[in-house]
């Protein structure tokens, strides 16, 4: 069962499906509106766009996993330290959300049993980690912004990103290398996100604190972009080991394109000329691609105003 603080003790917590009318002053709404601009910038980083098109180098994916490991280890250390803090306790879901152990499994798969001696924390990641530790020590309420930015994004797009990586890197279908994206303790991502947002909105916070949380969430996005940009620079020095998958990755994901955390809104708003051209060429090469294209385009048409979180 789930305790009053939000910690789930069982394997199937009773996620609430609250249907209350949201207010612009609700924290979840303020965070979504306040991070919209920086979120769009994150969508437009070359690293993210290449990833979502399946153009991800194995070595670069490994380094990305290293960065995530250090980020989540820091965040979850501070969450554990502050799990009883009244402004964070209702959002404490370690069994459902914590990722550092899953990332450790991914790194062991890529680097072997001695992976810890082979990886280091990059400069951009260290700045992110330092900020998380500072927040946890000095102003724990701001952990809400970091948890929201990371976990809600992971839940919104994790399955799509997992399938992109599996296809592009020829990873095993059994999940090795992409444990990070698998939330085994969450049976309905939609219901869990509704629960999490409702818990955020019920926190006893004044407007000043809410505004500070929005500012911190913007900083979290900026830290993520710095990591993306750093990876992009490193990628220029890595030999291109991309495998020709034959079709753009979204055409055969088998997942819901609307869950893609960075790509769908951007392509819908811009018209996606370059991507559509690539997809059309794929259709010419693959007869079955006509059906996939029709499905993709129909989903995309309804996402012009779609926004993650």
From TrEMBL:
**Pfam families, from UniProt?**
Heme_oxygenase (PF01126)
Q: What are the entry keywords?
A: Heme, Iron, Membrane, Metal-binding, Oxidoreductase, Repeat, Transmembrane, Transmembrane helix
Which major enzyme category is it?
Answer: oxidoreductase
Tell me where the transmembrane regions lie.
Answer: 291-308
List, alphabetically, the SUPFAM superfamilies matched: Heme oxygenase-like
Q: Which Gene3D superfamilies match?
A: Heme oxygenase-like
Q: Name one GO molecular function term.
A: heme oxygenase (decyclizing) activity
The EC number(s) given in the record are 1.14.14.18
Q: Which processes are annotated in GO (biological process)?
A: heme catabolic process; heme oxidation; response to oxidative stress
Q: Where is the composition biased (Polar residues)?
A: 1-12
Region annotated Disordered, chain positions: 1-24
Q: What is this protein called?
A: heme oxygenase (biliverdin-producing)
State the species of origin.
Takifugu rubripes
